[in-house]
Amino acid sequence: xxxxxxxGTRGLSFAYRAGAVPxxxxxxxxxxxxxxxxxxxxxxxGKSTLLYLLALMLRPAGGEVVWDGRPASxxxxxxxxxxxxxxxxxxxxxxxxxxxxxxLANVCDAAxxxxxxxxxxxxxxxxxxxxxxxxxxxxHRPGEISGGQAQRVAICRALLTDPRVVFADEPxxxxxxxxxxxxxxxxxxxxxxxxxxxxxTHDKTLAARADHEVRLxxxxxxxxxxxxxx
Length: 230
Fold this sequence. Notes:
The protein is α/β, with parallel strands linked by helices.
């Protein structure tokens, strides 16, 4: 496990409207590469918000998200989009697959946006879908597959470009134990390649298995734990 940091924050603050109590308040973090980091805390503590800030999907009210030691959240929208396309995989809480597209198209779309040739994206997608046992669902629509299969498809989409950083928002929250373990192990395996994996979760058992834990409070503060994941 590497201790080098790809993504972090410096004095990060965020509120959903001017004058509101900050959801995130003066947070400074360095998230290690080659590790799984869990974001934990009670409902309303800002786990998903911090995840979206780190992934450059939200702009902070104060402070900065940094990538490779350089300010990133203050970049223009187009530059932030390019950075996400090139380096980020995101697993949304409820998969968020496009119901009008096939499962295979859903897996490939982000890679095509990032500039991967269609033939390469399709071949890699089929390989990943085979690994996660959903290759036979490629021509189906998302509404025709189970929740566990949809989340495996979302993992395939997130990993297709071999991203340096994967963000996952409650990726096992609605899954049975077997599907949850498959999803978790996929994230662990990706971290083992040297990537940074950041998982927002309510699951205390999974959080305890992470290499690094960031605990958030409803007051917007954080504490951290570093240990040995599995």
